[in-house]
Design goal:
Length: about 70
């Protein structure tokens, strides 16, 4: 999950740092999903931003939904 987040953000803008500030996991009829709340700082300007990433657990691994 973290590698994917860094890769996606790197393509959009450079991120100096990020922190996962919250995760919520749910299971509905055997389908396991989660949301991860991410706080990040842009490299060039120092601007702070937050993003919520939706994930699904498939084959035992978390994958980011797009």
């Amino acid at each position: 999950m973290l590698r994917y987040f860094a890769r996606v953000q790197g393509a959009q803008l450079k991120v100096r740092s990020y922190e996962i500030t919250g995760v919520n996991v749910s299971n509905y009829n055997g389908r396991v999903t989660a949301t991860a709340h991410v706080e990040a700082v842009q490299e060039v300007t120092g601007a702070q931003f937050s993003q919520v990433m939706t994930l699904v657990k498939e084959d035992g691994e978390w994958r980011v939904c797009q």
